[in-house]
């Protein structure tokens, strides 16, 4: 076949692949990503509202706790954690709102929750507890605390304001608020990574097709090259459709297994070189 015979056929195939293939795949990946983001926003927004209330609660409690002069290890760790939570609360008070979904990564949320649980842990290790609840406020602290406690866990409203309440609120937040959604943020990030990989793949394929169309319009390419390029583009479209057909959960599991095997190989190499 001559170039003049192959060119119209190749142009028709490539044009239809762009309009009816890669564009539709690209749009579908975007729709799936949007649905995942909407699901995650609906799940994380209530959690972050409670987390913000916890930070504001800790911001107020920090000024009410008095520490002994000869502070020991447990008391030092407790004080450090309370100060860290207070810093998050200070940012919220300055901004006048709650933290948003994109303010923390999954790892950052995990680390914060771990520290919150340690507030309870280090208070539990204080036997006896030498911390003193000052209880001196220059404004209606009772109403302020009640508002935040109601958001975190209404059952804590009947508790007496004390150092023990700080530990109880922290333990309740970790077990009742964070643990139910503990793995959701990691799952969400894994899903988005795969959607981004799919987007990059389709974008590369789309760019390659456009490049081929431009070349065919301005350069007389060898017939063999046109046939090979068109076949490769059809295969690219088939792979793109296969990416959509396979459940994202399967992709995540495959990636997890691949990473696990990669780590095992690295560990074996490290043992051999040690």
List the helices and strands and how they pair.
Elements: H1 3-62, E1 65-66, H2 73-95, H3 106-124, E2 132-133, H4 141-152, H5 163-178, H6 184-218, H7 223-245, H8 248-273
Helix pairs in contact: 1-2, 1-4, 1-5, 1-6, 1-7, 2-3, 3-5, 6-7
What is the count of structural domains? 2
Tell me, rounded to a whole number, the average pLDDT.
83
Q: Per DSSP, what share of the residues sits in E-state strands of 2 or more residues?
A: under 5%
Q: State the end-to-end CA separation.
A: 62 Å
Which strand order do you get reading across the main beta sheet? 1-2
Rg measurement, Å:
29 Å
Q: Spell the H/E element sequence.
A: HEHHEHHHHH
Structural class, from helix and strand content? mainly alpha
Q: In short, what is this structure?
A:
The protein is mainly alpha-helical. Helix content is 78%, strand content 1%. It has helices at 3-62, 73-95, 106-124, 141-152, 163-178, 184-218, 223-245, 248-273, and strands at 65-66, 132-133.
Plain-language structure description:
By secondary structure, the protein is mainly alpha-helical. It folds into 2 domains: 3-38 and 184-273, no CATH class; 44-181, no CATH class. 78% of the residues lie in helices and 1% in strands. It contains 8 helices and 2 strands. The protein has helices spanning 3-62, 73-95, 106-124, 141-152, 163-178, 184-218, 223-245, 248-273, and strands at 65-66, 132-133. Strands 1-2 form a two-stranded antiparallel ribbon. Helix 1 packs parallel to helix 7 (223-245), helix 2 crosses helix 3 and helix 6 packs antiparallel against helix 7 (223-245). The longest helix has 60 residues, at 3-62. The radius of gyration is 29 Å and the shape is elongated. The chain starts with a helix and ends with a helix. The model has no long low-confidence stretch (mean pLDDT 83).
């Amino acid at each position: 076949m001559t170039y003049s015979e192959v060119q119209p056929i190749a142009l028709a195939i490539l044009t239809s692949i762009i309009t009816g293939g890669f564009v539709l795949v690209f749009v579908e990946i975007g729709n799936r990503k949007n649905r995942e983001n909407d699901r995650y926003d609906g799940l994380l927004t209530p959690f972050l509202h409670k987390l913000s209330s916890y930070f504001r609660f800790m911001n107020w409690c920090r000024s009410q706790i008095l520490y002994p002069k000869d502070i020991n290890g447990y008391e030092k760790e407790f004080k450090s954690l309370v100060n860290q939570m207070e810093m998050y609360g200070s940012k919220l008070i300055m901004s006048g709102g709650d933290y948003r979904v994109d303010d923390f990564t999954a790892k950052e949320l995990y680390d914060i929750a771990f520290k919150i649980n340690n507030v309870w842990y280090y208070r539990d290790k204080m036997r006896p507890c030498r911390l003193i609840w000052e209880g001196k406020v220059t404004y209606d602290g009772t109403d302020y605390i009640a508002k935040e406690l109601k958001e975190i866990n209404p059952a804590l409203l009947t508790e007496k304001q004390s150092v023990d309440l700080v530990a109880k609120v922290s333990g309740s937040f970790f077990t009742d608020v964070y643990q139910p959604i503990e793995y959701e943020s990691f799952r969400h990030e894994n899903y988005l990574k795969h959607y981004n990989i799919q987007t990059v793949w389709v974008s590369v394929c789309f760019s390659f097709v456009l490049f081929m169309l431009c070349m065919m319009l301005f350069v007389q390419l060898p017939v063999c090259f046109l046939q090979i390029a068109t076949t490769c583009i059809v295969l690219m479209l088939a792979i793109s459709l296969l990416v959509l057909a396979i459940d994202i959960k399967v992709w995540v599991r495959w990636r997890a297994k691949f990473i696990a095997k990669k780590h095992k190989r690295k560990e074996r190499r490290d043992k051999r070189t040690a």
